[in-house]
Amino acid sequence: MKAIRVREFGPPEVMKLEDGPDLRAGPGQVVVEVRAAGVNPVDAYVRTGAYARKPDLPYTPGSDAAGVILAAGEGVKGLSAGDRVYASGTLTGAYAGQALCEASQVHPLPQRISFAQGAAVFIPYGTAYHALFQAARARPAETVLVHGATGGVGIAAVQLAHAAGMTVIGTGGSEKGRELVLRQGADHVLDHGAPGYLDTVPDLTGGRGVDLVVEMLANVNLDRDLKALAFGGRVVVVGSRGSVEINPRDLMAHGASVLGILLHTAAAVRKADILAALAAGLENGSLDPVVGREIPLAEAPRAHHEIMDGPAYGKIVLIAQGG
User: How many CB atoms lie within 10 A of CB 140?
Assistant: First the structure.
């Protein structure tokens, strides 16, 4: 099989497509023929070597994948060769023609969901669900601002909040992106490149402000997020690329909280809740992953450049030929 391998930390170009042996399933494991692998910002952070968790070199990046089970190991029940699945993690990396997974890491992929969409499920939707309902305890009658709503996690947050009965305000930097956010269920959309764009929040919320902010770029937006909150509001930081200065008086005046999350720190019981919610949403159609770009596996470096530097529009996935 072919796989992307990283033999030294560094820029995207350290990722090379190599030939490797086919994988074998041990007890409690399955081998998945990968049809598509999700590209997440965390993959790029890990590749630089600056992330808190560093894999041993060499390694294959990625944890989100979708495909077909090739083989199931001894003791695996409920999973068989030929089953369509998506992965919520792998043992060997997702940027490859095959991935070895624990049986608990693979989940049924409904027929209506493509493999490319399946590769856009766990990290984006799991992160959004964890932020909204586990960290911030969002409620149906509340208003949420999804700050940076055009990427994978942002779209997931819009769909989940809309399905839960929340009023959703999304932001995007392009007209195309803002139109996408409206189609995903946002009630209002703002151009986060326009001066004073959050000045409209009081009018959109009857003067209250928003109850919750899901924040993708805290180093740019956190200070202004605090000023847009209703009393008792919460900001959940999903992403940040540096430090930020805030005025603590904004926290005090709004009785506000700032919460930071990482999906991989969610306890096992929380992951079980996340997976159950995602399974229901994928089945009933309330969750519909948006794939913005499909890039061949061999061009993984380009995918990393685009996810860090390009405009956000849905999920970037790598397309593998399998095997």
Answer: 10
d(CA 17, CA 4): 4
ω before 289 within 30° of 0 (cis)?
Answer: no
Q: Which two tokens stand for residue 2?
A: 């072919």
Backbone angles phi, psi at 246, to 5 degrees: -125, 165
Q: Is residue 90 part of a domain?
A: yes
Residue 203 lies inside a defined structural domain of this protein: yes
Asked whether residue 12 falls in the same domain as residue 88, the answer is yes
Instruction: Give domain status of residue 134, yes or no.
Output: yes
CATH code (residue 160):
3.40.50.720
- Which stretches of the chain are DSSP H helices? 41-48, 115-118, 122-129, 152-163, 175-183, 201-204, 218-227, 248-254, 268-284, 300-309
Please count the CA atoms within 13 angstroms of the CA of 266 that sit on its side-chain side.
24
Residue 65's domain comprises 2-121+289-319
The reported pTM is 0.95
Provide the b/e sequence for 158-181 (b: ≥16 CB within 10 Å): bbbbbbbebbbbbbbbeeebbebb
Q: Is residue 24 part of a domain?
A: yes
Give per-residue pLDDT as tens, 255-285: 999 999 999 888 888 999 999 999 999 999 9
